[in-house]
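Note to self: keep these together.
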Amino acid sequence: MKNAFLILLLSAIYFTANAQTRGRNATSRSATPSGFSIGLEAGLPVGENGEIYSSLIGGSLQYEIMPAADLGITFSGGYLNYNIKSKYGGGSVGFVPLLAGVKYYFTPGAFFHAQLGAAVGTKTGQGTSFAYSPGVGLKLSPNLDAEVKYMGISNKGGTIPNVGLRVAYNF
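Structure:
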């Protein structure tokens, strides 16, 4: 399942990148100096936590300010739901990530995005964790972005890492 997801994800990125180089015009971010995006996030836990958690799904709202044509400052918040495998009791664990970051556009249609912040647990006793998330993405159209990213949520001597995809609609 995880291998199929990764192959599908990498294939989508490859075909999207090829479509842009075959003549699609990448949209310049200078036309929208700041704005909101709403995104759907899905991913797979990696490492030892891949044994405990089966998948994650969530959503996020992000605001981006463009101080330069190739640089964005982002602020985001959302919700991530980690599904626990049935052999570990089933159910889920939720986090509310609150992140700030930098988005560097190395072409008008492709970017690197790094974020740092906190992830607040939604169950009693989870507390607040340090969260970090580097990723790369493509501007698929003037209103649609896709970003492949890694997210780590670290607390109490451990980390819950995942590899995921954020697909977002830009306002």
